[in-house]
Amino acid sequence: MSETPYAELSRRERQIMDIIYASGRAGVAEVQEALPDPPSYSAVRALLRILEEKGHLTHEQEGQRYVYRPTVPAAEARESAMKRLVRTFFDGSPEKAMAAFLDMSAEELSGDELARLAELIEQARREGR
């Protein structure tokens, strides 16, 4: 991934990354519009430049504007964030993390979702993960 882990970004930088991951790509105005309690246009532009310097974003020019996109695919960023989360809060144990997730979400998971989770566990077992 990039030099600065996603978890080490400021709250505003994470908000911007979330916006860009959700849309796939965005210009300064789109990011500013999507931010809660948005800062000025120039402040958003500066934050995007900082995220680019940190290696999280890249840009391309479209006419007069820059359009930013993540340097790491969302799936890769998610996996990296999950590994850090498990290592930091669950002593590196995926079992502890899954147990906490299930305790927290048990009432919210549908039968279909529980069946899909069981299927994923069985698939991991067959593949020797």
From TrEMBL:
GO molecular function per UniProt: DNA binding
Keywords: DNA-binding, Transcription, Transcription regulation
GO process annotations (BP): negative regulation of DNA-templated transcription
The UniProt record lists the keyword Cell membrane: no
InterPro entries reported for this sequence: BlaI_family (IPR005650), WH-like_DNA-bd_sf (IPR036388), WH_DNA-bd_sf (IPR036390)
UniProt keyword DNA-binding, yes or no: yes
Domain of life assignment: Bacteria
Family assignment from sequence similarity: Belongs to the BlaI transcriptional regulatory family.
Protein name (database record): BlaI/MecI/CopY family transcriptional regulator
Native source species: Candidatus Kutchimonas denitrificans
